Structures are given as C-alpha cells and as structure tokens.
Amino acid sequence: xxxxxxxxxxxxxxxxxxxxxxxxxxxxxxxxxxxxxxxxxxxxxxxxxxxxxxxxxxxxxxxxxxxxxxxxxxxxxxxxxxxxxxxxxxxxxxxxxxxxxxxxxxxxxxxxxxxxxxxxxxxxxxxxxxxxxxxxxxxxxxxxxxxxxxxxxxxxxxx
Length: 159
Prior knowledge:
alpha+beta, 5-stranded antiparallel sheet, globular, 4 helices
C-alpha cells in the first residue's frame, strides 16, 4: 500500500517554511520541470505564503503542512510526467480541501526510477485567514480521497 505522510516538523514556523520550500525544490533532489506552484509562483512561493500570513496577521504559529506521497515499492513505476500529473492533482485537491491554500509540490527521485512527491501547503486560508487544523477524521478523509487519485494511476491505495 502507498504511504501518505503528514510530517510533524519540530519548529514548524515561518522561519522554517523557507527551508522546507528550498529543500523540496532543491536541484539535488528534483528537476525544475517537476515543481508545481498552486496559487503561487514557484520562484516566490515563500514570499506569497508569507504575504497571505501577513495580510491576516498570522505570521506566528504553525506555518505549513508538509505531505509526502510515496508509492509502495511493489507498485508499478510511473514515468516522471505521469507521476507529476498525479502529484499536481493531489496538490490541487489538498489546497482546496476545506479552504483555499497556496501550495508548492515537487517530485523527488530516489534511487534511479523510484519517485516520491512532496507537497507544502500554507496553513492559512487565502480567503478567510483561518488556520487549517487537521484532526484524525480529516486526515482519514484526505487519505481516502488521495487513494482514489492513486488508483486512477494504477497505484495502490494509502495504508
């Protein structure tokens, strides 16, 4: 079964947001053509995330949600373009789940063919300024919905 991990980063705040964005978009781990920005420019993701936070006086506290999508090792290996299409669908789904959030995502190349995806979402809704608190029921629903996207690409559902 595929894995969807919502990281619980220690020090998740505005100061570490830039580091996370730089990490997932690093040329050491991914290729430029496989980076996607939703409601943001890839080159200015940090600045647009922070602008939203500033507009709503939400510059402190939890800054982002970081999801990692990793297909099971026994799943078929998708071509990078297909994996990018799938990751883009997941990113748009997450960004619009219970709100309107900015997001940046990227494919990382593991050992040769194996791919996994990272998605970072602003914790602040662009339209309301509300924070996104993900409880167990919400995470369960997110996993179920993302499992449908994975199955459409011939991958196993999320554990």
